Amino acid sequence: MAIQWYPGHMNKARVQLEDKLSLLDVIVEVVDARIPASSRNPLISDIVGDKPHIIILNKADLADPNEINKWEAKLKSDGKFVLKLDAQHNTNMTPLFKLIKLAAKERIDKLEAKGASNPTIRICLVGIPNCGKSTIINRLVGRNVAIVGDRPGVTKGQSWLKTSESVQILDTPGILWPKFEDQAVGFRLAALGSIKESVFHADDVALFVMEYLKENYFKSLVKFSRLTEQEVTDLPLPELLLAMTEKYGMRDDYEKMSLFLLNQLRKGRLGRINLEKVEA
Ligand code: G4P
């Protein structure tokens, strides 16, 4: 059965974005590079339609470099403009500005043909909560905190943030809610803190992550577990979780251990890990 969470929010976000689309030249969608499919809302492509569409694979510093490259290639082959980014540590936004201008080339050419010089391109950032939209906006805006007013007769009370380039950003990012087609999507989002932990039990999410790590990042799991390779291989997952709980001196508090594991995973302490790979 398809589980649909936050349908109210999702519909509201869709309507709001559709409303603003005519004001925008480029849509910049931010996704979490560790879960590039699960952190997208499938509606976005329908909403964006023919508008130039950039996808930022953000938090690239935490993701598996091999996997990000595969995702980048896949999304590019789907006709998207794609950029890998670590918005937290990287202050150089030149590649993103360049990509925005490349995506808006048709529009820029059209305006220049009408006599405009260096025309302003208007963009909006969209994405699920916690994927890094605000961080990227702050990076793009830098010290140019000035908010510019409306485009007369066209905008409906929108404010635009100036940047050092001829690019302006809608002051509020569009929040898209993820869509849970299956439980695995929900687990991935919960594992990385994109949805409230209370939606799931932490130990269920931790077991999901451990199963994935055992298959895909075995060495990282062994190192984190403080157990031997043999133990990690042989123990059924719930027993493995209990053994780790004991090793970490948490007695039988496997819930505490589960939260600790998830917390460390989110911070990149288990290494650069993707919870989602491009399907072959
Ligand atoms: P949002 O607007 O899409 O909701 O996301 P926001 O920019 O607020 O970023 C959410 C968290 O992710 C922030 O951490 C931010 O510093 C971090 N973040 C954003 N981009 C990157 C990135 O490229 N790499 C890394 N490692 N972190 C990034 P926070 O304020 O500490 O929040 P939290 O960690 O407590 O959730």
Automatic annotation (TrEMBL):
<keyword id="KW-0342">GTP-binding</keyword>
<dbReference type="GO" id="GO:0005525">
    <property type="term" value="F:GTP binding"/>
</dbReference>
<feature type="domain" description="CP-type G">
    <location>
        <begin position="15"/>
        <end position="178"/>
    </location>
</feature>
<protein>
    <recommendedName>
        <fullName>Ribosome biogenesis GTPase A</fullName>
    </recommendedName>
</protein>
<dbReference type="GO" id="GO:0003924">
    <property type="term" value="F:GTPase activity"/>
</dbReference>
<comment type="function">
    <text>Required for a late step of 50S ribosomal subunit assembly. Has GTPase activity.</text>
</comment>
<dbReference type="GO" id="GO:0006412">
    <property type="term" value="P:translation"/>
</dbReference>
<feature type="binding site">
    <location>
        <begin position="58"/>
        <end position="61"/>
    </location>
    <ligand>
        <name>GTP</name>
    </ligand>
</feature>
<keyword id="KW-0963">Cytoplasm</keyword>
<dbReference type="InterPro" id="IPR016478">
    <property type="entry name" value="GTPase_MTG1"/>
</dbReference>
<feature type="binding site">
    <location>
        <position position="174"/>
    </location>
    <ligand>
        <name>GTP</name>
    </ligand>
</feature>
<feature type="binding site">
    <location>
        <begin position="130"/>
        <end position="135"/>
    </location>
    <ligand>
        <name>GTP</name>
    </ligand>
</feature>
<dbReference type="InterPro" id="IPR030378">
    <property type="entry name" value="G_CP_dom"/>
</dbReference>
<dbReference type="InterPro" id="IPR023179">
    <property type="entry name" value="GTP-bd_ortho_bundle_sf"/>
</dbReference>
<dbReference type="GO" id="GO:0005737">
    <property type="term" value="C:cytoplasm"/>
</dbReference>
<dbReference type="InterPro" id="IPR027417">
    <property type="entry name" value="P-loop_NTPase"/>
</dbReference>
<dbReference type="InterPro" id="IPR019991">
    <property type="entry name" value="GTP-bd_ribosome_bgen"/>
</dbReference>
<dbReference type="InterPro" id="IPR006073">
    <property type="entry name" value="GTP-bd"/>
</dbReference>
<keyword id="KW-0547">Nucleotide-binding</keyword>
<comment type="similarity">
    <text>Belongs to the TRAFAC class YlqF/YawG GTPase family. MTG1 subfamily.</text>
</comment>
<dbReference type="Pfam" id="PF01926">
    <property type="entry name" value="MMR_HSR1"/>
</dbReference>
